[in-house]
Amino acid sequence: MRIIGGKFKGRRFTPPAKKWPTRPTTDFSKEGLFNILNNNWDFEEMKVLDLFGGTGNHSYEFISRGCNDVTYVDKFGGCVAFVKKTAALLDIEDQINIIRGDVFKFINKSSSKFDYIFAGPPYPLPTIDEIPDLIFKNELLAKDGWFVMETNANHDFKDHPQFFDERHYGGTIFWFFK
Q1: 11-53: per-residue pLDDT in tens?
Q2: C-alpha span between 130 and 153 (Å, rounded)
Q3: Which among 84, 74, 82 has a CA at the least distance from the CA of 51?
């Protein structure tokens, strides 16, 4: 895993491999996504939510590009410990709010609004198709905010009322909602 842009560009991180439950977004697909975001957002002004945050890949990328308000949520203790360690190493602890907890409980209880929400759920998660509806039902997006979810080809959100774009990078699909 590496950071592809901003002040930490080129930094590499290797999460522990033993019983690691994540599937980090590939550099190829992440670069494609951040090219889109870079053309539409001022990272310094964004409030970001990283759901199923795993290695913290997206969180670091946003902070590297100037975002000062990132909330990371994951329930796996190993992931949370890795992100805390990496945040300390990068000296970004004041820019990232690290929450160890169930994403669905967080969505249902959060009263915050975010400009950008990213969800990279495990592909076999049985409730993956419910996530967009939960984001909008709980009004987590700020006005004009975007929600992006990463899936494989087993999911299709083209008929979702808030869907507006999709991008394919190999077997990875990013679904865009607003």
Answers
A1: 998 877 666 666 667 778 889 999 999 999 999 999 999 999 9
A2: 16
A3: 74
Return the number of other C-beta atoms located less than 10 Å from residue 161's C-beta: 8
- Give the DSSP H or E segment for 48: strand 48-51
pLDDT tens profile 108-118? 999 999 999 99
- Name the pTM for this structure: 0.94
Residue 38 CB neighbours (<10 A): 12
In the chain, count of helices (H) and strands (E)?
5, 7
What residue ranges define each of the domains in the chain, with the CATH number in brackets?
A: 46-177 (3.40.50.150)
With pLDDT > 70 as the criterion, what percentage of the chain qualifies? 96
Beta carbons within 8 Å of 43's beta carbon, 6+ residues apart: 37, 62, 65, 66, 67
